[in-house]
Write a structure and sequence with these properties.
The chain is mostly helical. 65% of the residues lie in helices and 0% in strands.
Length: 202
């Protein structure tokens, strides 16, 4: 896929070129919206709003990471919906199948060589992570989703959230610290690298 050519054609109003871009990025855009919003319907609305806005304003894209630009657009769409609904989002980390059944071993956390006992512990840790994420302020939650789940670098997160690089680094550091502190309540589930020394010595 020649992304730069597709973007150029989309800027000239070529819907087919834009649709090709949509197909390329719809999964990551929807997944980001889903983790911020906490339910499929709201995530689908935010995704649709984001792509409509992206097509309408694609002339404003001046180069750089198109993925970051799209994730900024969907993040804004999520914030707009949340302001409208005036509700606090949740962040489910467990993906679901086409039948809306929870997938017990999501690919981003599953270990193909793990034992059944380790699988259960991973699932319990998953729920602990979800619990702690749900208690983060939305600005902290957004940066940790983009950086630690979507694996964007600091500059991409800054672009996506329209925040200065220093703000992103500060929020991410505080978010990770809060996550670390919260997860100490689930000390027995944590890998040794995440356990605070004070808890280990107990």
């Amino acid at each position: 896929m020649d992304e730069s050519l597709l973007i150029k054609d989309a800027k000239q109003g070529d819907l087919n070129s834009f649709n090709t871009l949509v197909l390329e990025y719809q999964e990551i855009v929807f997944n980001t919206a889903y983790r911020i919003m906490g339910d499929e319907d709201s995530a689908a609305d935010a995704t649709q709003d984001a792509f409509i806005s992206a097509f309408t304003h694609i002339s404003s894209f001046r180069g750089g990471s198109f993925k970051s630009w799209l994730l900024r657009t969907v993040t804004n769409a999520c914030y707009d919906i949340l302001r409208t609904h005036k509700r606090r989002p949740t962040v489910p980390l467990e993906p679901t199948s086409a039948d809306d059944e929870e997938i017990e071993s999501p690919a981003w956390i599953a270990d193909p060589d793990s034992s059944p006992v380790e699988d259960v512990e991973s699932m319990e840790l998953e729920h602990a992570i979800q619990h702690c994420l749900e208690n983060l302020p939305i600005d902290y939650r957004t940066v940790i989703i983009l950086a630690d789940i979507q694996e964007m670098d600091y500059r991409e997160v800054a672009t996506a959230t329209k925040n200065p690089l220093g703000t992103v680094k500060s929020r991410l550091a505080r978010a990770r610290l809060r996550m670390r502190e919260c997860l100490q309540d689930f000390w027995e589930l944590l890998p040794s690298s995440m356990r605070l020394e004070s808890r280990i010595s107990q």
